[in-house]
Amino acid sequence: MMKPRHRRLLFAALGLLAVGAIIALVMNAFRSNLVFFYTPSQVAAHEAPQGRSFRIGGLVQEGSVTREGLRVHFVISDGNQQVPVSFDGALPDLFKEGKGVVAQGQLQGTQFMAREVLAKHDENYMPPEAADALQRSQQARERAAQSMKEGRP
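The structure assignment produced for this chain is given below.
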């Protein structure tokens, strides 16, 4: 027969083990549902994961939208790089060329296969990550233009 002290230690150890298992399961579920945001420049630099879901955002490139039945092809750009996107389904009403968009899906080679497409919901909104990427791209183009004007390479 076990002494009361050993029994308490056994219950405490089993309790800690159960709590640890629950925490591990919750953390695993959280990690598998976490979806990161990438810009087209980051995707082109191979920073985005292959075979794992993520979000990509930028502007829908003018003249890039084509339709094949329910399948829609378009290009997302951050001003520096472009990523072709394919989506099966109905696009949001606010989806338009030249406007902000965020797509969620997976990269297959160089093609982004979107499962969900979100368009900006009013004239002033753009996802903060996409707005930052576009602003950095614009600043880089302005610096390059200034360097060219000043005769620097």
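Interim note for the steering committee: The chain has a mean pLDDT of 84. The chain is about 35% helix and 30% strand.
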